[in-house]
Amino acid sequence: MHVLLTEAKFGDCDALSKPLRDNGCRVSRCHARDGICLALVPGSSCPLDDRADPPVLAVDVRDAGDELTAREFGVVCALRKQVPVAIVPPEPGLPVAAPAGLEDRVTVTDAETLLATCQAAVAIPRPRPEPAGAIG
Questions:
Q1: CA angle at residue 80 from 79 to 81, to 5 degrees?
Q2: Domain assignment of residue 41, given as a range
């Protein structure tokens, strides 16, 4: 399962990255370490444009602020690509809210529930595509 991470503030999604990987997810981020959108970095591309293994879920780590920060624009990109978006707080127990205008388009959850859902999704056996030229 390929998960795309974005965040309201630099470093907010760091704590979620390793647990997602430990649960069998491939994790990509919207931004390079210097904060630039990967679609704008020379020689790079947006993970949402990956045709072989596109993200099936975008996760935005944010607090209870009403408006998207510039670091969260990946939420809009994901929604445009019809990729579901989950919103989680940067720390357990902190209040979290969907950005204004997106309340009906995203799911607000916590990291523990998100990890359990991802773990269950990764455990579902998927049929392997047949090699080209295979005769059935």
A1: 90
A2: 2-123
